[in-house]
Design goal:
two-stranded parallel ribbon, 4 strands
């Protein structure tokens, strides 16, 4: 029976994991618009011609993986250097920054929606800029979050806590689909502004809680 009971320290660790998992819902619900709302918008309202060649909409799905390959080693180096200098941000702080950086990417989508008003086409460079910010935000949150779970979760419930972490992704993907469904009634600009505002607000709340966590 003693082996089953969790210590107060272990309970605190689980609480931190659950709280951070909750905030990741906001991140992925916004981030996963790339596979839905942003793709539909790019197909219909973005000038995809570059040097006389029309870029297929599906190719934009390769932008994020390409930037992951490019920026991944840079992000790892930055964290290592900051760690050596004893100024590396805490995990909650990194995740809060990731949320806000990713959310800021939707400002470019707002600009794009302003450009595409009245039947005009938005610049593809605004879409690429949004993906760059989304990628940097992902690098601040996703690998850091997975590492945090493996470090904090008590060994007896490690698999369960990893499951909780991925359940938050499931909830986020469901929320992403629901949010994207409002584009026709609300319009892309209103939706992009809303996603930006909620992401920044969630990031600021997490940043305020980061020291306590």
């Amino acid at each position: 029976e003693a082996d089953v009971l969790l210590t107060d320290d272990e309970k605190d660790r689980i609480r931190v994991i659950v709280i951070l998992a909750f905030f990741t819902i906001f991140f992925w619900a916004a981030f996963e618009q790339a596979g839905g709302l942003m793709t539909l918008y790019t197909d219909a309202k973005v000038n995809r011609f570059l040097f006389g060649f029309e870029i297929p909409t599906t190719w934009f799905q390769a932008v994020n993986p390409a930037f992951i390959v490019i920026f991944g080693p840079i992000a790892a180096t930055i964290w290592r250097v900051l760690g050596e200098r004893k100024i590396e941000p805490t995990t909650p702080t990194k995740m809060a920054l990731g949320l806000m950086i990713m959310g800021s990417g939707f400002l470019f989508m707002v600009l794009a929606s302003l450009q595409s008003q009245g039947g005009n086409k938005a610049s593809l460079f605004l879409i690429v800029a949004a993906y760059i910010f989304h990628t940097i935000g992902e690098l601040c949150l996703s690998p850091v979050g997975l590492s945090m779970v493996t470090k904090l979760a008590p060994l007896r419930v490690g698999s369960l806590m990893m499951g909780v972490w991925f359940v938050s992704n499931v909830v986020a993907n469901k929320a992403a689909a629901m949010i994207g469904g409002y584009s026709e009634s609300l319009g892309e600009k209103t939706l992009f502004i809303g996603i930006f505002a909620v992401s920044i607000a969630a990031g600021l709340v997490l940043l305020a809680l980061s020291k306590q966590l």
